[in-house]
Amino acid sequence: MAVRSAALMCGALLTALLASGCMAVESNPLDVNSPRMQENASAVQQPATADVGDDPLNLAENGATLCSTQPGIGFQEFTVLVHNEALETFTLDDVTLQDPDGLTLVSAEVSPANREGHHKAHGGEEGDDGGHGTHSAEPAPAAPSATASAAAPVDPVPADGYAVSTHEYVNLVVAVSIAEGTDAGTAQGITVAYSTGGQEFTGTHPLVIELTREGCA
């Protein structure tokens, strides 16, 4: 009888302890598959877009002044070397002449280049003018090489919409013509509007152009 009473008392005591929570076990002690707190979710955010400056293509560098006589075809081409040193790809959106006086932009095209200088889109030798030069509309005769075969020609493509990838070198070739009724014209640079990831930029290459009908002084 005493044994039965002791068992009943132990059972009652165990029930009371469980009910009070003294020996309760958490249903999910490791927090498995539990919803994350709002503050934890807000702490994990995508990094902001890198600040690449106002002119990440550095178009405002390496200025020059060039004077040329307009050939009989009615326009002259000028070349600017562009190097994308940023980690983004930039799309060329528009090319214009800066402060043109008596000059008209006929076309703007892009062709591949290398890091030492620029290869002319229509053939010929590389210049030593820091990435600037003029072209004629006719290809210059190429001298055969005894040690290496000539590279296959690459046709230029329109500048508008061209994507300059990271670390790429390209030639920006602009064809310029003297306006009707004038004997000469000038421009204070070549302005390029370009963009990437919703960001828009504008840079002006300080290539001062003088184009005449009779010849430079």
Average predicted local confidence, pLDDT:
76
Q: Briefly note the structural class of the backbone.
A: mainly beta
What distance lies between the first and last C-alpha atoms, to the nearest angstrom?
131 Å
Strand-residue proportion = 35-45%
What radius of gyration results from the CA coordinates? 35 Å
- Low-pLDDT runs: 38-49, 120-128, 135-150
Strand runs, count: 12
What order do the helices and strands come in, and which of them pair?
Layout: H1 2-20, H2 38-43, E1 64-69, E2 76-83, E3 90-98, E4 103-112, E5 132-135, E6 157-158, E7 163-164, E8 169-178, E9 184-187, E10 189-196, E11 199-205, E12 207-212
Parallel strand pairs: 1-12
Antiparallel strand pairs: 2-5, 2-8, 3-7, 3-10, 4-6, 4-8, 9-12, 10-11
Which keywords apply here?
2 helices; 217 residues
Written account of the structure:
By secondary structure, this protein is mostly beta strands. It contains 2 helices and 12 strands, in the order H-H-E-E-E-E-E-E-E-E-E-E-E-E. A 5-stranded antiparallel sheet has the order 5-2-8-4-6, with no helix packed on it. Strand 10 and strand 11 form a beta hairpin. The longest helix is centred in the N-terminal third of the chain and has 19 residues, at 2-20. 24% of the residues are buried.
